[in-house]
Amino acid sequence: MNIFRFAGDMTHLISILILLLKIYATKSCAGISLKTQELYALVFLTRYMDLVTDYVSLYNTVMKIVFIVSSLAIVWCMRRHPMVRRSYDKDLDTFRHQYVVLACFVLALILNEKFTFQEVFWAFSIYLEAVAILPQLVLLQRSGNVDNLTGQYVLFLGAYRGLYIINWIYRYFTEDHFTRWIACVSGLVQTALYADFFYYYYLSWKTNTKLKLPA
To answer: Residue 36 above 90 pLDDT?
Structure first.
């Protein structure tokens, strides 16, 4: 494992901790898309199906468990916690994510590195993660104002994927048989979706004003 992947993993972990802090400290999930969180839970459950069959390292196993458990915990809080669920912006979170899931699954059946059960679902998880942020971005555009913790959550989530792109470039030049082209292309698409958010986050930071996304 190289430093870029480690930095990406830590940035991803920070984004999750920020979101958990927001939910547990404020007992509110206002500004957070449940549909994006459900998509991420599905991403981790399908990507890490090898958790009980393939052992890589203690670090790898722990990170897989952390991502699965944290994503399911966030979904549970937003759906079941008596105080948190009351703050959920259901009227703003209307992105039809079921069509995204279906499209990604069909794409995984067509474009995969090997037509096996595990590889198809791995490809599905990569495609789905690339677009999982869409419901969140749409919700933020509709709500207009973005609170600090939500903005930082999305920022670190986008930064994590950017660091993974550097990781893939590094591995391409240093490993003889690195062929994860699906992850590379999907990662570029995912990072591109954050471009607008990054721009307005930078303007907000530069002018020391509250972050607002245009509708």
So the answer is: yes
